[in-house]
Write a structure and sequence with these properties.
305 residues, mainly beta, five-stranded mixed β-sheet, four-stranded antiparallel β-sheet, 24 strands, globular
Amino acid sequence: MPDIVEFGPECLVPEIRNGTGESPVWDPQRNCWFWIDIPNRGVHRMDAATGAIRSWRLAEVVGSMVLRPDGGMVCACTTGIFDVGLPEEPGVEEAAMTLLAPVTHPRPGMRFNDGRCDRSGRLLVSSMVGDISLADAAGRWYAFSRAEGLRETALQGILVPNGSAFSPDGRIFYNSDTHPKGRMVWAYDYDPDTGTPFNKRMFIDMREMVGRPDGAAVDVDGCYWICCLDEGCIKRFTPAGVLDRIVRVPMLKPAMCAFGGADGRSMMVTSLSRGGADLETDPHGGRVALFEIGVQGLSEPRLTR
């Protein structure tokens, strides 16, 4: 039986609620956490020492975010990949955006979604049809670097591609399908020199579980932590695919988790809420949780290529 750990409302970050909180990431250079709010086009930063939060808005809906070596960020939005600068002047709330690579989606109503950098500093990012009720498997994974631009990979035909993460050596790539008709996590061998995933195999079949697989993270032992949408927990699977830990959180729809903090043993978890009826059954929906998990996580690579 897996170990079960439970965190209550005391772990919630005060005074902030997202539509869909995603892409939490720890910045050790500035001792702070970042995350985004997809539908509200928000970027948030929380100082770890003081808990102070500063927020900015983007010009379009954002799907995911990674950091640059200089402390800036790169965001995958609706129309392409953007360099994003966050003005520090008081009262300036609009982020500065510079287009790095436009995208031509195969269907209307699509946007970028989940993404992260591989261990060599290349971005892998997915796309999806925004209206998931259509169950349109036009979603796919792209690779991006400044040198090579944006290119499609062979990973296509996915409803809601999500759950991206890399093994500690960078040679296994994980991803999931969050859609109710998907609910699978796959593992691929991965060539870090070319950014090519291959040799697809099933890693976790979640179709008989309550939750749907959303965002993920990997710890130093290579265990895969996946947020379980609609189940209010994060599940840890060993590299062999064995469930060995369940972390219960106060939000019913946790969207993505990340390791961080000074010792890499803190975990931030974002969540989503569509408001109204959602909040009746999930009063902490859209909130952000932060707690000591007691497990060493891997630091997230920055976009260096």
